[in-house]
């Protein structure tokens, strides 16, 4: 009985925003946030792959880390 105990589901995120020029924070919306997260994962993976290159490790090792 979650309703009786005060627990509830968080409100769903909107997918897109009207843009930063409309005084909205784009990271409060699902689509811009997931794009930022994907880009961050790609950049960190590529950086690790570059650092592991002298150790002759393939890129997949950086992706696993």
UniProtKB/TrEMBL annotation:
- Which chain regions cross the lipid bilayer? 29-52
- What is the name attached to this protein's record? Uncharacterized protein
Q: Which UniProt keywords apply?
A: Ion transport, Membrane, Potassium, Potassium transport, Transmembrane, Transmembrane helix, Transport
Entry keyword Transmembrane helix: yes
Cellular component per GO?
endomembrane system
Record-linked InterPro entries: CPA2_transporter (IPR050794)
Q: Does the keyword Transmembrane apply?
A: yes
Q: Which BP terms from GO are recorded?
A: inorganic cation transmembrane transport; potassium ion transport; regulation of pH
């Amino acid at each position: 009985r979650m309703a009786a105990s005060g627990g509830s589901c968080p409100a769903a995120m909107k997918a897109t925003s009207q843009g930063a020029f409309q005084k909205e924070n784009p990271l409060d919306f699902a689509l811009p946030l997931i794009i930022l997260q994907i880009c961050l994962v790609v950049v960190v993976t590529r950086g690790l792959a570059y650092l592991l290159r002298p150790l002759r490790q393939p890129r997949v090792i950086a992706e696993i880390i």
